Every structure is written in structure tokens, then in C-alpha cells.
Amino acid sequence: MPTYKSLTLILTIALMTVGTATADVTKSDQKQSAMETMKIATISKMYQQDIDEQGMSNPAVLQQYANTELQAAMTLEQAYFDKNQMSCNVDYDVLWDSQDPDYTQDKKLSMTEQGLVQVSLAQGSDIYYELSCDDNDKDCQIADVILDDDGKTLRKHLLEACR
């Protein structure tokens, strides 16, 4: 009989441990899902503002949603323009991957496995955003925009080209 009680005790402890591990995984999945929802909501809000203002926001809508590092790179670009009367920025609207954006085109927002927000535009372009989020404020900011398949980013481009 003591063996039976020992076995029951071991099984009970094992099931409690599995239950706790499952709860931790569920909490982690929920936190990940909430973070993804926050990221997509931020990008969706940014695009809606750009559509509403037809790209005429001042400062630019991307700068309004950027974190401090990306804002600093964008400020560097403005200083370069003021000094040299020429742009060191990319020569198109990054949000729409176009020089003449179609604000009415359909777009689809999704998450990549790398945690980037992907915006797939009806014109066939995909734009990828890296966001930094603060759990406490339920707020996300754009840390960078991936410009090409080689992984070149807007922030890196501005820091290199606008010196």
C-alpha cells in the first residue's frame, strides 16, 4: 500500500507541475498576442492618419509615430536639407512605396515570424515595420522601416546618407 500512496503523490506533483507550465505558456502566448495586436493597431492608426491628411502631416506622420532613435535620424535628414538644399532621404513615400501614393488602395496588415508588422499594398509592395512597445503604456512606436530585401533600413540609410 505505501507504494501506491507514493505513486499517487508523485503523479499529483507531476500533474501540478504540468498545469503550472501550461499556465505559464498560455500567459506568454496571451502577452505575445496582445503585443502583436498593439503593433498592428499602431500601424493601422498611422496609415489612417496619413490617408485622412493625404500625406500632408507636419511633421510627417511617420515621424509622429517614430521612437526617439528614428526621430533623431529624421531630424538629421531635415538638418542636412536645410544646410545643403538637397535631400538625403529616400526619393519616395516610405509608407506607400511610391512617389505618388494612392491613398485609396487596399492594404493588409499582418505579423511576420520575426515580429515585424507587414503592410501588403494592393499595388504589390510589402513594407515592414519594426516597432518598440511599452507594456505599461499599451503604446508602440516605430523603431525602423525595412526598405529592401537586403535588410537596409530607413534609420540606417538616414544615418549614413545625411552626415
Largest sheet: 4 strands, antiparallel
Query: Helicity level, as a percent range?
Result: 40-55%
Strand content: 15-25%
Low-confidence stretches: none
Please give the count of helices.
4
Task: Classify the secondary structure makeup into a structural class.
Answer: alpha+beta
Please tell me how large the radius of gyration is. 23 Å
Counting DSSP E segments of at least 2 residues, the number of strands comes to 4
Question: What is the general shape?
Answer: globular
N-C termini distance: 80 Å
Q: Order of strands across the biggest sheet?
A: 1-2-3-4
Give the oligomer, counting copies of the same chain as homo and different chains as hetero. Answer: single chain
The ordered string of helix (H) and strand (E) elements is HHHEEEEH
Averaged pLDDT: 85
Fold blueprint:
Layout (H helix, E strand, L loop, with lengths): L1 H51 L8 H5 L2 H17 L22 E5 L5 E5 L4 E9 L4 E8 L7 H8 L2
Protein described:
The protein has 163 residues and is α+β, with helices and mostly antiparallel strands. It is built from four helices and four strands, in the order αααββββα. It has helices spanning 2-52, 61-65, 68-84, 154-161, and strands spanning 107-111, 117-121, 126-134, 139-146. A hairpin with a 4-residue loop joins strand 3 and strand 4. Helix 3 (68-84) packs parallel to helix 4. It is globular and about 55 Å long. The model has no long low-confidence stretch (mean pLDDT 85).
